[in-house]
Each structure stands twice: as structure tokens, then as C-alpha cells.
Design goal:
Elements (H helix, E strand, L loop, with lengths): L1 E7 L2 E10 L1 H16 L4 E12 L1 H17 L2 E5 L3 H10 L1 H4 L1 E3 L1
Parallel strand pairs: 2-3, 3-4, 4-5
Antiparallel strand pairs: 1-2
Length: 101
């Protein structure tokens, strides 16, 4: 699992690459802490190269959404594959996040 974070103006993009499974989510949560701490702008979670997400990974997404909501920011989830879309649908995450293709 790799995460590349970039920031331009008021937009932070986190590009997630690989599998966000339970073991990877521990390190991913640490990497994503600065994104959560400064969530007042737009956060784009770029999932074009994310192949899998576990419940631990979903908790990271939820934490970012909660931080953005509290700080007046917004979260956009971009490029989820059909398997991840199915997980989002089953868990109700499709209703929680703005999804872009």
C-alpha cells in the first residue's frame, strides 16, 4: 500500500495505491493524520489505483469525513472500482461521500 499526498491551494489529494487491508491501514492511518488535522478545504481521495478496502480502511475514510465536516471541508472519493463501489453500497458509504468517476 502506497499513499501519495499532494496539496495545491485549498485542495489536498491523497492517491491510494494497492490494497488498503487491515495491516496496511495501520500505516495508512499514520500517513493520513496530517490530512485529517487540516481538513478545512477539499480533500480528494484518489482511488483509481486502490484495488481493495477493508473495514479498517473504511474507518480511515470515515475519520477523514468526520474531520472535514467539523472543519468546514469536504471529501471527494474519486475513481473507485466496481468491487469497492459494491463495498461502499453495502456499507452505506455511497450516501456519505461525494463520488466521482
Amino acid at each position: 500500500m502506497d499513499i501519495e499526498i499532494s496539496k495545491q491551494d485549498n485542495v489536498t489529494t491523497a492517491r491510494l495505491i494497492g490494497r488498503l487491508d487491515t495491516p496496511a491501514s495501520i500505516e495508512a492511518a499514520k500517513i493520513m493524520e496530517p490530512v485529517q488535522e487540516d481538513a478545512s478545504g477539499t480533500i480528494i481521495l484518489d482511488c483509481n489505483e486502490l484495488s481493495y478496502i477493508s473495514s479498517s480502511g473504511l474507518r480511515i475514510f470515515l475519520g477523514i469525513r468526520k474531520a472535514a465536516s467539523a472543519q468546514g471541508g469536504k471529501v471527494i472519493v474519486r475513481g473507485i472500482n466496481p468491487d469497492i463501489r459494491n463495498v461502499f453500497m453495502i456499507t452505506g458509504f455511497l450516501n456519505l461521500f461525494q463520488i466521482e468517476e
